[in-house]
Write a structure and sequence with these properties.
With 75 residues, the chain is mainly beta. The chain is built from 1 helix and 5 strands; from the N terminus they run ββαβββ.
Length: 75
């Protein structure tokens, strides 16, 4: 299992409001994809995974018309 800093961003849908909710935690995670799927279990969700040059794993998520992003950076 690896230890990650997890950043979960929920983007605001209101026009002219660029703010977003941001949650940060440290967690031991065996499988980042399983973690994302468990977080949104029971919801209609789509996501795209990308890996940045520094190794950060990013999931761009759409659920219930709300855009979200979860980033996993190994500690």
């Amino acid at each position: 299992m690896k230890e990650y800093e997890v950043v979960w961003e929920i983007f605001n849908l209101c026009s002219n409001n660029q703010m977003r909710d941001v949650f940060i935690e440290e967690a031991e995670i065996a499988d980042t994809q399983a973690y994302v799927e468990q977080k949104f279990a029971g919801k209609d969700v789509t996501y795209e995974k990308s890996v940045l040059e520094n190794g950060t794993i990013v999931y761009d998520i759409m659920t219930s018309g709300i855009r979200q992003r979860m980033s996993f950076t190994e500690i």
